[in-house]
Amino acid sequence: MITAVLLALLCSTPDAAGTTLPPEALGAPPRADESPTAWACTIETLRAGRECVFEAEVTASTSTDVQAQAASNVRTLKEIGHALCLQAAKPPSGIAGDKHLVAQCERKYADTAEDACGLEGKVPIIDAKGRFAPAARACYRQLSSVLQDTAMMATVASACCQCAEKRGCPSAGERCHENVSRQEVAGTALACLANQCGEACALTMPASRSLGDARPTKQVRGSAQADGSL
After folding, report:
1. Is 184 exposed, middle or buried (0-12, 13-18, 19+ CB in 10 A)?
2. What's the helix, strand, coil split of the chain in %, to 5?
3. CA pair distance 147, 108, nearest whole angstrom
4. Are 143 and 76 in contact (CB under 8 A)?
5. 76 and 125 Cβ atoms separated by less than 8 Å
6. Angle separating helix axes 99-116 and 137-167, nearest 10 degrees
7. Extended beta strands in 116-213, E state
8. Which residues of 51-89 are buried (b: 16+ CB within 10 A; e: fewer)?
9. At 125, is the secondary structure helix, strand, or coil?
10. 104-142 pLDDT tens trace
11. How far apart are CA 117 and CA 111, in angstroms?
12. Residue 74 and residue 111 in contact, taking contact as beta carbons nearer than 8 Å
């Protein structure tokens, strides 16, 4: 009985050579899905700082002008630099992004694109489906590093630096975010941040000093000499 059923099923199987099956049919020939996967390295993964896979399939550029292809690769990335830096420089607290941090990010991003993203004009840096070429690994990682550093400074230093600029502290300006996030502010600049922006700068104040005791080094030494201290 079982043998008869199996024979009947075999006999009822459509002939692949003579019958056209719908694409969704179990017996239809397999079709490759060439759309980008969720793991593909794209502009979106670059913006979000997510792990990704360089799965693009790009062929060597057909252009005989490798300089033109290299310039096109760099231009493609620089055109989106402003939008990426605006996003990276946005503080999580909801305060407005700092124009100095955005400018700093754009400059470093553009320099990185110029230095690492031309790919010698051998291949397009991004394929037609928006995926980064495997040859763009070094470029992608360096651009990602610029954006992640910017996001870190926006988190820990933006509120402090914006307050510093409003209060006229000596530490304000384009290098404020780097200096504050690395705790490289000292002297009168540190005293101004402590006195004028204590709450905004609390995350990045040197642990060895309390907010009320951050004073210029010269004043501290002068006070010690006046008291006869060693």
Report:
1. middle
2. 50, 5, 45
3. 9
4. no
5. yes
6. 160
7. none
8. ebeebbebeebeeeeeeebbebbbeebbeebeebbebbb
9. coil
10. 999 999 999 999 999 999 999 999 889 999 999 999 999
11. 10
12. no
22 burial class (0-12, 13-18, 19+ CB within 10 angstroms)?
A: exposed
Q: Which residues contact 155 (CB under 8 A, 6 or more apart)?
A: 91, 92
Q: Is 108 left (phi over 0), alpha (psi -120 to 50) or beta?
A: alpha
Indicate the residue type of 86: L
Q: How far apart are the first and last CA of the chain?
A: 106
Report the C-alpha gap between 23 and 213 in whole angstroms: 74
**pLDDT digits over 52-78, tens only?**
999 877 776 666 689 999 999 999 999
Q: What is the DSSP letter of 207?
A: T
Which tens digit of pLDDT belongs to each residue from 6-42? 345 445 444 445 567 676 666 666 665 555 567 899 9
The label of the residue with tokens 């996001």 reads 151
Cα–Cα nearest to 141, from 160, 113, 173:
113
Backbone dihedral region for residue 167 (phi beyond 0: left; psi -120 to 50: alpha; all else: beta): alpha
Measuring CA to CA, which residue among 63, 58, 77, 78 is closest to residue 124? 58
Give me the residue label for tokens 């307050």: 163
- Give the orientation angle of helix 99-116 with respect to helix 66-78, to 10 degrees: 160
- Angstrom distance (rounded) from CA 180 to CA 201: 8
